[in-house]
Amino acid sequence: MIVSLFRRKGQNANRIIVDRVFRHVVDAARQPVLYADWGIPDTPLGRYESLGLHMIVLLHRTRDSSEPLQALAQDVLDEFFKDVDHSIRELGVGDVGVPKRMKKLARMFYGRMGPYWEAMDAGDAGALAAALGRNIMPGDAATADFRADAIARYMLAAAKALAARDDATLLTGDVAFPDAGAVA
Fold this sequence. Notes:
Family: Belongs to the CBP3 family.
Shape: globular
Helix content: over 70%
Protein name: Ubiquinol-cytochrome C chaperone
InterPro entries: Ubiq_cyt_c_chap, Ubiqinol_cyt_c_chaperone_CPB3, Ubq_cyt-c_CBP3-rel
Radius of gyration: 17 Å
Strand content: under 5%
Largest sheet: none
Pfam families: Ubiq_cyt_C_chap (PF03981)
Organism: Oceaniradius stylonematis
């Protein structure tokens, strides 16, 4: 009751939109084809990679957008890292070890962003596939059933789909990632 006295007007509406956008990102990252057909490992780290690449596609779309959309993207990114923190704790990592793991995962995320964005900007599926192979399946990409080429094509299609939506639509939380199975 007293907390509501200090809450900013509109904060609940923003929370609903942030949750809606993050739900779209999570749902896209959980598409079975990514794991069963394209070889992303169905492990905590593999699921982190899938969620991370979807966040990177979303952030790619919002990086040069209106200030409100950039603020929404930041809130969704904050939600992503809160979710990662929660997942680490669910895996049994204690309070002392969580910050160390979070720093490592944040470095991994931001280290992937540059090469992925560079390849996405150029529309270069080959360069994107190479970066995905180095990051998701280092050392094993050539021998595993890992389909970096399919994931790269999907990421480019997702970036194109998000680019087709105007800022006003995205600000309502209407973020649509394509069906991964239909892209490949």
